[in-house]
Design brief:
It contains 12 helices and no strands. By secondary structure, the protein is mainly α. α1 crosses α12, α2 crosses α6 and α6 packs antiparallel against α9. 27% of the residues are buried.
């Protein structure tokens, strides 16, 4: 990122002279903080929605007996094996039908419903380890604070996944000002050339 032309001397070599043009242009011309704000908003809101939904559903599965409980578990865990590309058409179609294409709401909807199995598994395991005597004494006033480490773990994992997600962000959003941080990196590459100095500088800032 400190080389004027990174591809002139590729590989891990010290630059002949320090070039900060990429960093200056990333902040001054690209306004990178706007994209950080987009990522923070989309990832944050989707995490809150998903964790609230999953913590309630995980409680039901962990603590209550009902018909079809095993099937619910299997269906939830099976979502771990479905790649994003297999969901492209139905999700893309749904987003268009809801008139959410090229909006942050579309990404929030997708992120809130993705990665459910991992969060569900983490939170449910915490619920399973809480003694039932405590639950009978005070129900949710006691359960949620005790399960807080599991809920926070699931929230952090979901946030990192949403923050780094590129596939849906590049597919659903086309307006440059609405892009998230990972989708922003693709704008440095065109069909004809790549601004490597700018790209590497932006990557360092994002990391």
């Amino acid at each position: 990122s400190l080389k004027k032309d990174p591809m002139a001397r590729p590989g891990f070599q010290l630059p002949e002279s320090i070039c900060l043009d990429g960093y200056i242009s990333t902040f001054k011309d690209l306004h990178v903080m706007r994209y950080f704000g987009n990522s923070l908003f989309v990832a944050g809101v989707s995490v809150v929605i998903s964790v609230v939904m999953i913590s309630m559903s995980a409680y039901v599965v962990a603590r209550m007996e009902f018909k079809g409980k095993a099937l619910v578990n299997v269906l939830l865990y099976s979502t771990m094996f479905i790649p994003a590309t297999a969901l492209t058409y139905p999700v893309y179609n749904l987003v268009n039908r809801l008139h959410l294409y090229d909006t942050r709401s579309a990404l929030i909807l997708i992120y809130s419903c993705s990665g459910i199995a991992v969060s569900f598994f983490v939170i449910k395991n915490y619920y399973d380890n809480i003694p039932r005597e405590l639950e009978e004494a005070a129900r949710m006033k006691v359960i949620f604070p005790i399960a807080r480490p599991g809920i926070m773990t699931a929230a952090v994992l979901a946030f990192l996944n949403n923050w780094n997600e590129y596939y849906w962000a590049s597919l659903v959003l086309i307006t440059r000002e609405k892009l998230t941080v990972p989708a922003l990196l693709s704008t440095f590459t065109t069909a004809f050339n790549t601004n490597y100095n700018g790209l590497f500088s932006a990557m360092v800032i994002i990391i």
